[in-house]
Amino acid sequence: MEHNEHELLRELAERYGVAFDYHDIWGQRHETSDQTRRAILDAMGVRVESPDAMQRALADCADAPWRQACDPTHVMRTDAPAGVWSIRMPAQEQEDRDIILSWDVRDETGAVRQRGQAGPGLSPVETRAVDGYRHVRFELPLPAGLPIGYYDVMVKGVSESRQVDGTLHLIVAPAACHVLPEFQEGHRIWGLAVQLYSLRSARNWGAGDFGDLNTLVEWAAKDLRAGLIGLNPLHVLNNTRPFEISPYSPTSRLFLNSLYLDIEAIPEYQLCESAQQTVQDAGFQRALAALRAGEKVDYDQVSAAKRAVLESLWTTFYERHLGGRDLHDRKLKPETERGRAFARHVEKEGEPLEMFALFHALAEELRRQHPLVLAWREWPEPYRSPQSASVAAFRVTHRARIRFHQYVQWVAAEQLGAVAARARAGMPVGLYHDLALGSDRNGSDAWVYQDVLALNADCGCPPDAFAPQGQNWGLPPADPVRLRATGYRMFIELLRRNLVYGGALRLDHVMGLFRLFWIPQGMPASAGAYVRYPVEDLLGILALESVRHKAVIIGEDLGTVPDGIRERLALARVLSYRVLYFERTDQGDWKAPEAYPQQAMAVVTTHDLPTLAGFWAGRDIDVRAGLGLYADSGVVQRAREERHRDKQRVARAIGAAGLLPPGMTDESAAAQPMTPDLCHAVHLFLAHTPSWAVLANLEDLLGETTQTNVPGTVESCPNWSRKIALPLERLRDDPRVHQAASALRALRSLPSAGQS
Asked: What is the count of structural domains for the chain?
């Protein structure tokens, strides 16, 4: 590549936020290659096939803002000066001082909150020739005194020869995220974490559901006096093994997985004889018994059983509450209060729910016509764009099927909403949800937001000690330029729909607000590069939605964390996520409890790491050895020896805090399996930290040894499938859980919501 072409490519990559280099976890510098730059820019839709194309792309970067009357989006903070905004328009030089600018500031209801006008007599702050015309730019003070929220500033510029119109999406954000007042008063809380699908009960259909969650919440609030219940992501999945069951690779992050529905608790079930006959059939009951008894969740069978009954329930709802009318009309005409509740939900959820339901109705129909075509990018061309005329026609002719998918989401929202309300009433925080980093490129989110996502790239992370070859998570990243150009609508919708059901939200890989490691498709993870994101805008929106929903935000800040990121998150009142396994000094020893930060959530382990008992037994080493992930037996032996030393270091830190069980030393602790007393000591160790929240995994308290997910594996491990050992009916009386709860609440005495 000629030097000039290299410089053009480098400059263009810089304009689009592609980082010049990065330092890995060992401090080694990696420079982004021209091949990677070219591939990432191509994934962003930037033409880079020749020096001329790059010159045109650079010119477009400079000229594009001048082709709009104003910027698409501006995020301002209530704790900072309002600043200025720019208005641009074509104008002949003699017209400059005759130009009149006027604007209305409209809030989310469409009401005008402010009006303004400037000119004539204005002087432009800058001029530029664009597309053969002279353009001028004026600067005006941003509207002041607005409460937090979302606004449209509708602007008009008028000269003797020209009129331009534009809209600035103005977002007024608070300085920081919501924090429980009790945290600021020195209180600390504890909670219980569970993978919802893993819950056993005598009544569920083979996977934990919202009915089980309700039971767990009542027990944890009343008997254990926990402050929150932590959950895996509840996002929509296809629920088909082995590739489409990971909650961190959903088809949509906006809506709920119907796998978690408590079918028999849906009101229509009591009215639907056909559904009751289906469920009470001896064969169906035998199938349910087998699904309950299985050690792993059979996603396909559980999902199929629920979907079959849901079809009948929808028919009953349609006939009883919508009058069995033709549904071609977009506006519902319900006949009962329950029907009106559905209509209100559909109206409130608006276009996002409509598009989600439309995608699934369309996917069903096209699968019938083309059984081998599963991915929407392989659909017949007219259906690949949500804005096409063919999709619009389908939307009219298949309205009833679209309503079915809206109904499924409505009953899911009803059930989870009721549990969330109960949790908030009995706990300081309530439900603590997890927002996955991205979604499957073949899912509904990717179809709806294809104008924002870079579908020809993946995100992941560079090589580190955990993954020496790097990681490719197979999720398409959002294009930061398009994200801002669309007013951050996808990011806002994600936050709103994931914050509505609880008092806390964990952001998976929170560093993605700052930068994300892009891997062009077809290239190894080690060849990726970081792309920068508009972090101040994203943090502002995060704070706004957090405050509106009165929800605490936790950022999963593990892995390669550049300098300054944790400090910036702390200023935004985003809690750090501290994992016991990683909290070590530079010398390799485990940190003392007092070394943990206050503004944090402390946990023993995560879904991608061994359970506490599994760590102690070296089960993760056994699994990796069985999969051939070690070079030879010598490496395996060294890993076992290092694990023994790590266990001694953990026990030594616990002993230094005065928390080891009587008669136990660091040597004896490391030499024996994880016992209930030692597990208790580990959790007491975390409870002594100043961190605002401590989360205990249910599987750790029960001594489970198989980890939830082994990264990099699919069919070789029972990822996202294993059930806990005890059903809920027996769990309530388990002494290990009660012992841990008693100790944790004694040290973290924040009263429940019902007691405060």
From this structure: 2
For residues 404 and 315, what is the distance between their CA atoms, to the nearest angstrom? 9
CA separation for the pair 165, 324 (Å, rounded): 46
Domain co-membership, 84 together with 60: no
308, two tokens: 């079959």
Each residue's pLDDT tens digit, 571-604: 999 999 999 999 999 999 999 999 999 999 999 9
Q: Nearest to residue 115, comparing CAs of 128, 105, 127?
A: 105
- Asked if 8 and 90 sit in the same domain, the reply is no
State how far the Cα of 709 lies from the Cα of 609, in Å rounded to an integer.
Answer: 7
Q: pLDDT tier at 266 (50, 70, 90 boundaries)? A: very high
pLDDT digits (tens, 9 = 90+) for 214-258: 999 999 999 999 999 999 999 999 999 988 999 999 999 999 999
Reply yes or no on whether the pLDDT at 752 is more than 50.
Answer: no
- Does 90 share its domain with 166? yes
Domain that holds residue 108: 80-173
Helix H, strand E, coil C: the string for 658-700 is CCCCCCCCHHHHHHCCCCHHHHHHHHHHHHCCCCCEEEEEHHH
Q: Tell me, yes or no, whether 695 lies in a domain.
A: no
The whole model's pTM is what?
0.95
Burial class (CB in 10 A: 0-12, 13-18, 19+), 168: buried
How far apart CA 588 and CA 510 sit, in angstroms, is: 25
**What are all long-range contacts of 79-82, with beta carbons under 8 Å and residues at least 24 apart?**
79/174, 79/175, 80/175, 82/141, 82/142, 82/143, 82/144
Q: Is residue 37 part of a domain?
A: yes
Do 37 and 105 fall within a single domain?
no
Phi, psi of 706 (to 5 degrees): -90, 125
